[in-house]
From TrEMBL:
Active site: K90 (schiff-base intermediate with substrate)
GO MF terms, alphabetically ordered: aldehyde-lyase activity; transaldolase activity
UniProt-annotated location(s): Cytoplasm
Keywords: Cytoplasm, Pentose shunt, Schiff base, Transferase
Pathway: Carbohydrate degradation; pentose phosphate pathway; D-glyceraldehyde 3-phosphate and beta-D-fructose 6-phosphate from D-ribose 5-phosphate and D-xylulose 5-phosphate (non-oxidative stage): step 2/3
Gene Ontology cellular-component terms listed: cytoplasm
Claim: Transferase is one of the keywords in the record: yes
Name of the gene this protein is made from: fsa
Name assigned to this protein: Probable transaldolase
Organism: Cohnella nanjingensis
Length: 221
């Protein structure tokens, strides 16, 4: 399973990229709004910041409702950074979003169908040719449904029918989500930087480092 970072914050993207575990970036209207910056400018900055990742998702804005409106926005977004192939158009899981997805896929543009909460929605997105599909597991957990189980079911469905769409486990809130979606067959987990930091930590690692440091002071020089 690969890691994408789920943020529009440049400092967090830089930190994750520097660690060397980053395969992509996902953003959404809420994440961009938190940064207080112009959407297109931030996407351009992100694309420059992570030159060799496979994907940077830029979502069409909520005022694009029809497929034509979404495609018009996508056309502007893919012009940013000279039609860079890693720009991925994130589309809502609606009939219009699927229509735009099919159109953009045929044009060779990467797509990410977002706000997926059922297996059937994932199947539709895959059949519309989506490069990625994003089930939001944390938000299902929030309403007492099993988000990881959804990821496992989508992974099994895609395997049985040899569908090439990759699953991005999204709305990932903590390290246990990461372990469980990896075991369930997600291709990618998109996570905030805080979760990447948590993944790297263990109290016994800290304790071990402290003991090594203390013992090292006793060595003969
Ligand atoms: O990747 C989707 C994510 O940004 C939503 O996360 O925590 O708001 O459900 P959350």
């Amino acid at each position: 399973m690969k890691f994408f970072i789920d943020t529009a914050n440049l400092a967090d993207i830089q930190k994750a990229y520097q660690v060397g575990v980053l395969s992509g970036v996902t953003t959404n209207p809420s994440l961009v709004a938190k940064e207080g910056v112009k959407f297109e400018d931030r996407i351009e900055e992100i694309l420059k910041e992570v030159p060799d990742v496979e994907s940077v998702s830029a979502e069409v804005t909520p005022d694009a409702v029809t497929a034509q409106e979404m495609i018009a926005q996508a056309d502007e977004l893919i012009k940013i950074n000279n039609n860079d192939k890693k720009i991925t158009i994130k589309l809502p899981m609606t009939l219009a979003g699927l229509e735009a997805c099919r159109y953009l896929t045929k044009k060779g543009v990467k797509t990410n169908v977002t706000l997926v909460f059922t297996v059937n929605q994932a199947l539709l997105a895959a059949r519309a040719g989506a490069t990625y599909v994003s089930p939001f597991l944390g938000r299902l957990d929030d309403i007492s449904e099993d988000g990881v189980l959804l990821v496992a079911k989508i992974a099994e469905l895609f395997r049985v029918h040899s569908l090439e769409t990759q699953i991005i486990a999204a709305s990932v809130r903590h390290p246990d989500h990461v372990t469980r979606v990896a075991m369930a067959g997600a291709h990618i987990a998109t996570v905030p930087f805080a979760v990447i930091e948590q993944l790297a930590k263990h109290p016994l690692t800290e304790q071990g480092l402290e003991k090594f440091a203390a013992d090292w002071k006793k060595t003969v020089s």
